[in-house]
Amino acid sequence: MCILKICDGSFSYDRKKLILNNINVSFKRGVCYGIFGKSGTGKTTFLSLLAGLDTLTSGCIFYDGNDISKMNKDKYRSNDIGVIFQSFNLLPHLTALENVLLAMDISNNRSRNKKQDALSLLKKVGIDEVKAKRRVLHLSGGEQQRVAIARALSYNPKVILADEVTGNLDKDTERDIVDILKRLAHDDDKCIIIISHSDYVKENVDKVLFLKSGNLKEN
Amino acid sequence: MYILKNAMLSIKRCYGRSILLGIIICIIAVSSCISLTIKSSSDILVDSYIEDEELVVSFEIDRGKLQNASNVDKNNFSALDVSLVKEIANSSLVSDYYYTLEVSMSSDAIDCIDDSFIEVNDDDNKKRDNNGFPNKFSNMGDYRFTAYSNFSYLEDFVNGTKKIIEGEFLDNDSSKYQLIISEDLSQKNNLTVGDTVKFYYPSNSKKTYKFTVVGIYSYTSNNDDFSFMPGNLMNASNQIYTNISSISKILSDNPSSDVDGFKRISNNDGLKAKFILSDDLAIDQFKDEALNKGLSSYYSLVTNQEEILNSLKPIKNISNFSLSFLVLTLIVGAIVIIGVNIINIRDRKYEIGVLRAIGMSKFHIILQLVSEMFIVSLISLVIGISIGTLSSQGVTNKMLEKEISSYQSDIQSIQDNFGGQDKFSFRSKDNRNTLNMFMNSSNNYIDKLIVSTDFKVLAFVFLISLVLTIISCFISVSFISRYEPNKILQNRI
Question: How far does A210 lie from chain B, in Å, by closest CA?
């Protein structure tokens, strides 16, 4: 089932050079996508557009059949789509648990056991309760990345966008993270879109897409 | 709810910036509280002092004007007398009045308390002063007899400077020759209550008046203005109080004599009348009324207004200083708070970017920052107001002390210009009454201001903090509304 679709999507920063040129692509739930390409080809820009952090110069992005330009972007980001950033983008003055709880609060999660839910999410990505109560600055890069994944999952979005999530991690941790994301796609019926340079990711995702000269092409 | 929780967490975890902001707001609150407390209390004191302090009006002969008047006018000059005083006092503008009669008397029966400062032995000197003019003190006796129409205005007895230690006070309704004398005079002449003493008018020693001592008073200090009284008369121990009827009788028995180069004004020049006005703004109306009732135009109106205002000078000065300090504090405080907030918001750019990226709306971010600001402000305000309230009395005392000492040093400087205080003092043998012509100007300042932080001050300090917080919030809003999450996060990478 198509959850995210780009129709004739183009984007440029200065209206001179197109970063993305007339892209048409759709993403389905239950599939783990990998987007690859050389540095500077616009992968992160593409992800920002999907996340609603940027706006297409022309064309439309549809989420679940709705044009996201007409949706409330804050609500879209806090409820419908989860973003995992390369640099984690966690709040350093909060603990791992608090980071997850804050995302739950922002998404207006009405669960009565938010704390338990957050702890079990963190446990699912490999963060135990002791670590969950540490400030994120006291966690390793891999652990911070796991917290970022838990945060992205905390409000149960249908789409998860992961920007170079394994870029700063060692091979074992990379394997763990990719496994988690794949499980989310296959077990929880989520649409996972990973931007990466890693061969391991390329080999393990369900579908590989290449971004070159502003165009997105299937392998 | 989560916004408040997050704001509290942010304050707690990022305590460095919270403390910095708190200290600034606390300093502003302390300064504002002290300034406003002093300003408010001093303004209340000034208002109540002016309201409570009776506006006392008296009439004094404009001697310069009278000197220059034609002989016809001089001869037609009609002095203020008791009946005119009573008529002037019969006005809706006058809430109360009193008059005093004074006369100098001599006695062969008792010895006065000597004063060595002015020794008048030479007959010629008795009659002429240094400029060769007739000496107006030549007919002066050794004792100063004073009578009050209303003894409740006899300030020395009201404020306790003088106290009856033996016998009783005078009876103004009595037509008997009664008097009360000082302890010194009674001791020197072995006088006790019930004794009788004969006095005579200095220029008429044949006519004597037999007075009965009804009371003896003691005094701790003397505030009477004797600075220009000659010889023994200036010694406070020779001050005798009697009743109005006695002095009236003496004055009527002794017609005026020619002094000062023209006919002595009248027997009533020992008369001083003071009118307490019911309305501070009715001075001119009162003067017109008095002139219409027959007061000579050679009288000028004298009020205690300037004296009241002078005594309030240090208080007014610290009130003005407090206001200036408050304005300065607010301007500097606002600039510092704005600066700190700009730095604060720039420092939190990343945090704002992350919150925006995970879907927190601008409104909620602003709400969180405003909540943080309000919580920090409220805590700082409570601490600041407490410190301000506790320290305002001490600060006030120090300021007032400094202000009064500054005035006193100005007076000292004037005295020094004339060769020192002694040149202005008439000192008696026993050193009990140093009469300084500057005494009034140096001693009458209000030297105590009790300050209290009232609801009005608290409300104003809260208002100031609220305004400063709102200013800070506007800055937050203006910055946050410019921030785009993607740009913030990209710039960070």
Answer: 22
